[in-house]
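Ticket reopened. Same input as before:
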Amino acid sequence: MGLKKYIVKRVIYMIVLIWAIITVNFLIFSMLPGNPLERYVASLRRIDEIRYNELKAHFGLDKPLHEQYIVSLRNMLTFNFGISFNSGTQVSETIFSRKMPNTLLLLGLESILSIIVGMLLGVLVAYKRGGILDTGTVTFSLTMYSVPIFFIGWLVIFFFAVNLGWFPAGGTVPLEWGRYPPTNFLQIIIGRLSYIALPTLTLFLFSFGGWVLLTRACVLETITEDYVVTARAKGLKERTVLYKHVLKNASLPLITNVALSFAFVVSGATITETLFSYDGIGLLTFSAIMNNDLPVLYALFYVLALCVVAANFIADLLYGVIDPRIRYG
Amino acid sequence: MATRKERLTFTFKRFRGFLKQFGRNRLGTLGVFIVVFFVCLAIMAPLLTSYDPIRPSVGMDEYPALTGGRKIAESLCVPAWYKSIPWIPKGRFSIEERFYSILEVYYGKEWQIFGREGQVNATDTSLRLTQRVASIANITATAPDSTARTLDPTEWEQTPSRLNEIVVKDFFPNGTTYAVEYFTGTDITENMELASDPTFASEAALNAWTNQTNRPDIVAVQYNSEKGYVTKLSKESGCIEISFDPHGATIENVEVTLSVPFQYPYYQPPKSFLVHYAAMFEASSPGATLTILFSKETQTGPEEYILVRKELLPSNIYDLVPTTSTQKEVIDNVGVNPATNKIFAAPGQYAFSIRISFQNLNQTAKVYLDNLNSVLYGNAFGLLGTDNAEPYPRDLFSSLVYGARVSLFIGIVSALLSTAIGLFLGLASGYIGGIFDEGIMRFADLLLVLPTLPLFIVLIMALRQFGAVSMWNIIIIITFFGWMSFARSVRSMVLSLRERSFIEAARAAGAGKLHIISRHILPNVFSLVYVTLATAVPGAIVLEASLSFLGLGDPRIASWGKTLFDFESSGIAVTKGLTDYWFWMFPACICIAFLAAAFILIGYSLDEILNPKLRERV
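Engineering reply: fixed in the latest deploy. New output:
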C-alpha cells in the first residue's frame, strides 16, 4: 500500500467520522426520548418570542425529523450554529474569533511542554529502571494521574497565586487592557504569559504523568530488542543508543497518543479554564451549562470533536510518513 | 479427570499463592487498605454522622413552627477542633488603632472628620474601629503641638447601634491624632442550647427556672399537664401555665419573669440566635405581652437584650413563633439600655428569660407556654465545619462520609458494567469475526475518537431538559463510553489465542464454540479483566467528580464532586481564599485522589503479578 492510498483511506475515514459526529449530536439532541432540543426551544417561547422563532427556524423544528436531520447536517458543515439564547450573539463568531484562539494557545503551550518533559523523563526513567528515580517518578506520575484536575488547579492557585503571588489567580488578560490596549509587543507577550502560566502549569501537571508512563512503557518494550544490543555491541555511546536507536523506534506509538491525548486534554481544559476563569472554550462550556444554553453546547461538542478528529488525522499522516511499514507493508 | 474436591483444593492453593504474591507487593497492599478504609466509611456512614448530607436539620417535631426542623449550625462554620489549636486566636486582645482628625466647616457648623492614620482622606465623622469593642476603650489625643492627654470617659461615647464606632464629643485643634486602645474578643464558639422543649414544660423544669413577679398575690406559675401543645412527638404534653387573677380590680402593670441562668464561656458573641415558642392566651380582652430576653447583672443594674416582644391576642389555639436574629439585629431592636451594646462581649453569667406582662386587665386570664426552644449558634461546628447552603447549612463531614458511598458505588458499578460489556463484545467480535467484528470495532473507534467530557456534558444537558439526571443515568453514560479499549484488547487476545494449537485440539475433539470460549479462551483472558477492573474504577470516580464539579451531577445525592461544585460556585476561593475554608474543599479532593490512586495501585500491582510479560523482566 502506497502512501497516497493510505492518505486517501484516512481522508475517507475522517469524512465518515465527521458525519458520525454530526449524527451523534443530532441523536442526542433530537432523538433522545423526550426530545431535549424541542423541549428547550419550546420553553423559550414565554421569555422571548423573537428569539424563539429565530431558533425554531434555525433548527427546523417545524419540519419532520428527517428534514431536521438534513438541516442539522447543513448547519454543522457550514458552521452556522445559530444564536446563543442567553447572550443573543452568533455562536460561531463567539467560538471561533473569541474563545478558540485562547484555548488553542493554552493547549498548544501545554502540549509542547508536557510532551517534551514527559518523553525525556520517560526515557531516562526507563533506562534506569528500578532505581529511586524510577520508583519516584512512576509513583508521582500515578498520583498525578489519579488526582482530579481541579485539586491540582486549586493547589496551583494556592501556592503560586495566593502564597507566593507570582502570577494572577484568574483571568485571561490584565483588566486594564480593556481601557488601555497595550501597544508594545513585548508587553502583550508578558501580560498574556503571566495569565496563561498557571492554567498551563495545571494542565501540564495533569497530563505529563501519562506521557512519562507511556514513554517508559514504550522504551522498555524496545530496549530489550536485539538491534539495541547490536548497537551497544558496536560500541556506540550509551546516549546515542538511547536517543537515536531506542527513542526513535519507541516514539511510534507515542505519536498516535498525541492525538488521543488531545481529547483527554480537552476534557482537562474545560475544568482548568473554569477554575482560572480563563476565557476559552472550557469557560464557555461551563457558562453554557450554568445558563442552560443548549445551542452553544450543540455547537461546542461538534467543534471540540472536530478538533479531535483533525488531531487524529494529522497524527495518522505523521505516522504514515514516519513508519515505513505503512508505506511498504 | 480431577474430582471436584481436588479441583477446589487446587483453586484454593492458587488463590493463596496469589495472595502471598500480592502481599509482597507493598503498593498493592497499601491500595487495598485504602479501598477497605473507604468501604468501611461508606458502610458506616449513618453511624459516623447523624446529619443528612443534603438538607440537614434537627428536631423536626420539636419545632412545630419550623417545618423541617431547625438548621444544625450557622453557615460557614469552622471545624470545632479549632478551639484546641494554639495558634488560632482565642480570648481577649488589646488593640491599638490610630486616627487623625480634620475640622471642617459645613453649613456654618464645625464638623470633626476622622481618617485612619496613613491614609490621605478623612471620611468618617466618628472613629470607626476595625474590631468591636469588648471593653473599655482608652483614647489618647495628641495635639499638633504634641501635647498628649487621655480623654475622660465623659468626652466620648460608643455609637448605640454599632459595636465598633466611637464618637468624640469635644473638638480638638485641627490635625490632632487619636490613639484608641481597646479590648476585643475573638473565640471559637459552639452551639449552645439554652432551652429545649422536652425539658421546659415539665414539673421538674419548673423548679429549675426561677420566677419573679412584682405582684405574687395576683399571678401564679404552675405546671399544667393537660393544655400542652400537641406535637407529633408527644400527643399531650404538659405546659407552663401562668394564671392572672386581679380579683376584680384593674391593675396597671403586672410582670412575671421565668428565667434560667447560664454561663456564657466565649469571648465572641454567637453568630445568631434562635427562639421558638408556642403560647396561648385565654382571656376576654387583649392586654398581655410576651417578651423573651437575655439579661446580665452589672453594677448599674440588669442589662437586657430583647429577642422577641409580642402582643398576645386572646385565643384558644397556640400561637407559634420562630425567630432568628443576629447580634446586630438584636441590638437594633432592643431600645433598652442602648449605650452599652455589650451582649455576650465576654464570658460571664447571663440569664435567659421569658416575661409575661399584663396591662390594665381586670378579669382573670391565663397564659400557656410550651415548646420553648432557644439556641445560640456559634461559629464552629462538627469535624469539618459547614458550608454556605441556605437556609440549611450542611455538615461537611457528613457530606464527605456519604460522598464515599456515591463515589464507590458509581465507580465500582460502572467499572463492572463496562468491563463486562467490553469482555463480552471483545470475545464475541474476536471469535465470531466477519461483519460483526468489523461493525463492533468501527463503532468502538468512533466512540474512542469522541472527546469524553464534552460528550458527557452534552448528554447530561440533554437529559436535564426533562429532568432525567440521576445517579443511574450517570452510571449508564459512563458505562456506555467506557468499554471500547478493553473490548479491543480482549479481541486482539482472542485473535491470537484462536490460532493456538490447544484451541485447534479442542475443536478437533468436537468442542462447540461456546465451550471453547468459556473453557479455553475466557480463563486466558481473565487476568486482563482484573487489571482493567481496577484501573476502570478510578476513571469512573474522577469522571463522576468532574461532572458533579461542573454542576452536572444529580443534585439530590451528596457526592464529593457536588461539594466541590458548591465550593467553586460560592466564590469563597476568590473572595476569602483557600486557607480560611480549606476544610470545605480539601478533604473531598484528598478523598477522590486517594481512592483513585488506591485503585490504580491495585491495578498496577495486579498487572505486575498477572502479566507474564512483566513477570519475566523482573
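The first strand of chain B starts at residue 91 and ends at 106. Chain B touches chain A through 47 residues (CB under 8 Å). Please confirm and we'll close it.
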